Amino acid sequence: MAPSPTLNKPTTPEGLNAALSRISNYVKPRKKRLLIAEDNEAERFGVTELLSHPDIEIESADTGRAALDKLRTGGSTAWCSTCACPI
């Protein structure tokens, strides 16, 4: 892993502003995309409600095939599924 940039003392106001900008960008929330594959509508709703959060965009699929199609198009950060979700 590459060493992280550091500030040497004394620094300039521009160097301090650049470092603070890097820190601000690092801690900024990033939107995640979650794919839920569940054939039971009530359970799919429950999992969606349980995992809902402002920085998570949830997409769902009711079959394994639909989930695989959505995964192939990309964009999901993570996915969860029941073991028995039908194809």
Topology:
Elements: H1 13-27, E1 32-37, H2 41-51, E2 56-61, H3 64-72, E3 78-81
Parallel strand pairs: 1-2, 1-3
Tally of helical segments: 3
Spans of at least 5 consecutive residues whose pLDDT stays below 50 are: none
Q: In order across it, which strands form the biggest sheet?
A: 2-1-3
The description of the largest β-sheet is: 3 strands, parallel
Order of helices and strands: HEHEHE
List how many beta strands DSSP finds.
3
Secondary-structure-based class equals: alpha/beta
CATH architecture of one domain: 3-Layer(aba) Sandwich
* Helix percentage: 40-55%
Can you tell me about this structure?
By secondary structure, the chain is α/β, with parallel strands linked by helices. It has a domain at 31-87: Rossmann fold (3-Layer(aba) Sandwich). The chain has three helices and three strands. The chain has helices at 13-27, 41-51, 64-72, and strands at 32-37, 56-61, 78-81. Strands 2-1-3 form a three-stranded parallel beta sheet. Helix 2 (41-51) links the parallel strand 1 (32-37) and strand 2 (56-61). The termini are far apart. The mean pLDDT is 84.
